[in-house]
């Protein structure tokens, strides 16, 4: 489990970015696969989620997960919220204590957010599609509508695929530049191949929303030595599926 130095200073929350170690899953899912959407044994996934919850807090409620769809949709959980199903969304915001909110990734960017004064937290799944569709701005604007203040918000950008391993097509670059010419700086050319810097694009989205207290973990999920699941690496190894890393934040 990796922690953000900045979020670790906030006493009202517990959090963690978990890699693939310390779980029950076997073979390509070895070992802490937390993805119910994977083809892994569902019992192992359930056991892994329990391990993660206990590491955050044994007495916490069940981890709240989403059915992630690479969108800009988010869910808000307050005292009246009741969900008998997994909502289709890519971010979750709450002011409720003891509910660990989680995001699953396998190269996309996990973002954990906390407003210490207002006691509101959020977890965001940002692949290029969600980031492009402004999921980060939507979440921050909603938090501000709820009384949060940008200067009191801390954001941690978790482990994700690095620019050197995220090869993309020219049409993606055109799409981002059409949105904003300044986005050109997030694309790098090397040996006639094009690469996209998703973590730093995400950081810019936070800065654009006046969030200055940002922790960028700078850990590459593609690099096998970091022990994270990676969809891109699984594809390269001709695996027919891949495990999911979990990122959790919870109000004490």
Largest sheet: 6 strands, mixed
Radius of gyration: 17 Å
- Overall geometric form: globular
- The largest sheet has its strands arranged as 2-3-6-5-7-11
CATH topology of the largest domain, by name, is CNF1/YfiH-like putative cysteine hydrolases
Instruction: Indicate the multimeric state.
Output: single chain
* Low-pLDDT regions: none
- Sheet/helix structural class: alpha+beta
So, CATH architecture of the largest domain?
Answer: 4-Layer Sandwich
Which percent range describes the beta-strand content? 15-25%
Q: Regarding CATH, which class of the largest domain?
A: Alpha Beta
Number of domains: 2
**Number of E-state strands:** 12
Count of helices? Answer: 7
Mean pLDDT: 97
Task: Give an overview in words.
With 252 residues, the chain is an alpha+beta fold. It has two domains: 5-162 and 198-251, CNF1/YfiH-like putative cysteine hydrolases; 165-196, no CATH class. Helix content is 25%, strand content 23%. The protein has helices at 5-8, 42-56, 128-132, 135-145, 170-179, 198-208, 231-236; strands at 13-17, 74-77, 91-94, 101-105, 109-115, 120-126, 153-157, 167-168, 187-190, 193-196, 213-216, 245-251. The strands form three sheets. Strands 2-3-6-5-7-11 form a six-stranded mixed beta sheet. Strands 1-12-4 form a three-stranded antiparallel beta sheet, with no helix packed on it. The chain has a three-stranded antiparallel beta sheet with strand order 8-10-9. The longest helix is centred in the N-terminal third of the chain and has 15 residues, at 42-56. The two termini are 18 Å apart. The mean pLDDT is 97.
């Amino acid at each position: 489990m990796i922690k953000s130095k900045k979020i670790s200073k906030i006493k009202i929350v517990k959090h963690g970015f978990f890699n693939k170690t310390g779980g029950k899953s076997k073979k390509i899912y070895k070992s802490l696969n937390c993805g119910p959407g994977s083809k892994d044994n569902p019992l192992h996934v359930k056991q892994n989620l329990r391990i993660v919850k206990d590491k955050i807090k044994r007495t916490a409620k069940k981890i709240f997960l989403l059915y992630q769809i690479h969108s800009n949709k988010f869910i808000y959980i307050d005292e009246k919220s009741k969900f008998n199903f997994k909502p289709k969304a890519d971010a979750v915001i709450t002011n409720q204590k003891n509910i660990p909110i989680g995001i699953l990734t396998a190269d996309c960017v996990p973002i954990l957010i906390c407003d210490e004064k207002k006691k509101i937290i959020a977890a965001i799944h940002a692949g290029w599609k969600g980031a492009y569709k402004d999921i980060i701005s939507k979440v921050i604007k909603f938090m501000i509508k709820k009384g949060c203040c940008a200067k009191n918000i801390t954001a941690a950008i978790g482990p994700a695929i690095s620019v050197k391993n995220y090869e993309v097509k020219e049409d993606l670059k055109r799409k981002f530049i059409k949105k904003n010419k300044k986005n050109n700086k997030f694309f790098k050319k090397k040996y006639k191949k094009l690469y996209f810097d998703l973590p730093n694009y995400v950081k810019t989205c936070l800065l654009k929303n006046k969030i200055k207290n940002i922790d960028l973990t700078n850990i590459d999920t593609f690099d096998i030595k970091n022990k994270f699941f990676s969809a891109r690496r699984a594809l390269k190894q001709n695996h027919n599926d891949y495990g999911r890393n979990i990122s959790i934040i919870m109000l004490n």
